[in-house]
Amino acid sequence: MKILRPLSGRHAAARLVTAVALSLVTGLTPVHAQKRSVHDTREQATQALFDQGVAAANQNDDKTALTIYEQVAQRYGKGSPPAMRTLAAKALLNKGGILGEQGDAKGAIATYQRLDLRFGQDKDQAIREVVASALVSKAEASYKQGDAKAAVATYEQIEKRFAKDGSSFIRQLVAITKWRTAEILADSAALSSRR
Hints:
The protein has one domain (about 10-195): Tetratricopeptide repeat domain (Serine Threonine Protein Phosphatase 5, Tetratricopeptide repeat), CATH 1.25.40.10. The protein has 8 helices and no strands. The protein has helices at about 10-25, 30-60, 60-75, 80-100, 105-120, 125-145, 150-160, 170-195. The longest helix is centred in the first third of the chain and has 28 residues, at about 30-60. The chain starts with 9 loop residues before the first helix and ends with a helix. About 35% of the residues are buried.
């Protein structure tokens, strides 16, 4: 599994520096700058926590990584700004990946389903990409568990939900799902003919 790399916090830091500079020049901090500062601080804290999870996973400290990813996922959700929702979704995706690597296919599948339930209707493109990735991972975990029917059903769901998506990344995932569906059906047919 490829662990997601941390996102750059430069833009959030640049907005914070701009707000501070504005307050020094004018002597007052505009209301919108105050809100951004609080928002940026929360976003930076979320990013730092997520980065700790990535670092733990990269050091093969799965227990710590799982705990941190769960903290990120629990703290931020639908009501949060897109950047923090994206981190929460990525945390669940990474958590599912670690569980799958540990051989806990049921835990991985449940985590991917949780991600889809929580973020599946989100309109933000980055989050949609994470959701589509989670569904592909869910299908693969189902297939590895011996449930070809569930894998095909999940792949068909991906095609149905994301076929018209504008993201090139998601279009690539949809193409992969078509290929994997055909491959799984061919394998299932071959197994059936041997019996």
